[in-house]
UniProtKB/TrEMBL annotation:
Residues 61-400 form the Aminotransferase class I/classII large domain. Pfam families: Aminotran_1_2 (PF00155). It comes from the Bacteria. Its cofactor is pyridoxal 5'-phosphate. One of its GO terms (biological process) is alpha-amino acid metabolic process. Its EC number is 2.6.1.66. The gene is avtA. The lineage of its organism: Bacteria, Bacillati, Actinomycetota, Actinomycetes, Kitasatosporales. Keywords: Aminotransferase, Pyridoxal phosphate, Pyruvate, Transferase. This is Valine--pyruvate aminotransferase.
Amino acid sequence: MSALSGIRSIMEDIALAATDTSGDTWLNLSPGNPAAIPQVTDTWRRLYEEAVASGFAEFSGRYGPSRGSDVLVDAIVRYFNARYGWGIGPQNVLVGAGCQMLAFMATTVFTGPGDDGPRRLVLPSVPDYTGYQGLSLDAGGIVGVEPGVEFQDGRFFRYTFDLEAVRAQSSVGMMLLSSPGNPTGRTLLRDDLSGLMEIAEERDIPLVLDHAYGDPFPGVAQGAVDPPLHPNVINCFTFSKAGLPGERLGFAIGPRDAIDAMLSFTANSHLHAPQLIQATAALALNTGAIDTLTTEAIRPYYRDKRRTAEKLLHDLLPDALDWRLHSTDGGMFCWLWIDHAWFSDLVLYEALKRKKVFVVPGRHFFVEPFASPFLAEHATRCVRLSLSPDETVIAEGIARLAEALEEMRGAK
Ligand code: PLP
């Protein structure tokens, strides 16, 4: 927690590139930032202005409830009950400063030293979101479970959950995963979800599901299973990927006792999340604006970008190269596996930097120690590309990636 982890260390490189005076244009294919889609930006600006006009003094001039502003908590309750037929109340909801913060609070509450020894955070299938790696206050407090690998038609592959390996973990305090996944775009299948909920129930631990890219918003995945209402599941949602990453706003929905514990953490650590943006988000839920953005703007945008990127990869990457792409259900990334002994994600990262391109080295999405020699090797043979940049940046970035790979292959 007190050291830079994974991807955060490359932020410095990107900051440095921003001050480059050579006149060259850097192509950044690494961002987790959502794209600035004009319809999305315009809608949020309009709603924000409405919130300012109607309640600046009320929201910004006063402290508010730690659970979240009444307007937003009520809006969340109404929205989810109507959409999923749930019967939740305010006691099941906690508004927080983004999914990252909610995941940190849950990890701190449910893992660490316990009455019966250490309780660890288990990521049931790595690779998963690099931001999970810094969540634990205990060195060695996080375990990443090795997935299975399924080879699919053409250049595609898919990781599968190894539920037996998850079940075999000891000293578990909580499980956490993103679905659709960052970096893979994979969504949980119904059977995997049932299996994980069964394990959580047997152990009486929380299963935290991070829906940052999922339904109901930004909804950039096909066939995602509905968020489950279950006594052991804490569902985390965020407004970041729906266009508000800078505002730091998310919320958790779960069983009352778990939400209560996280509510106390909120009150003790930072009182509550910022309120003007909560009022803005409430307007988006109550008016249905968030659904319009999801279906009309965000989902088609990433679907089209993915199609373009897949075609470019197929057209431009050398045929002789053993490369594979994780098949996607959605998400905002492409996850590439380059399966050669001469390949290293860090060597590629440096080679691309020389070509003024940033990508994210794959190893940052895995957790050490590795469960097997295969996983240790595999973690160095992957790379993540973002679908958020403009199409011209993606096209030129993939062209330079192809060039760099050809050069690495030639130098082997
Ligand atoms: N969860 C996942 C899977 C993410 O990819 C990200 C950001 O990249 C986050 C959480 C962070 O979300 P927030 O901005 O709500 O803290």
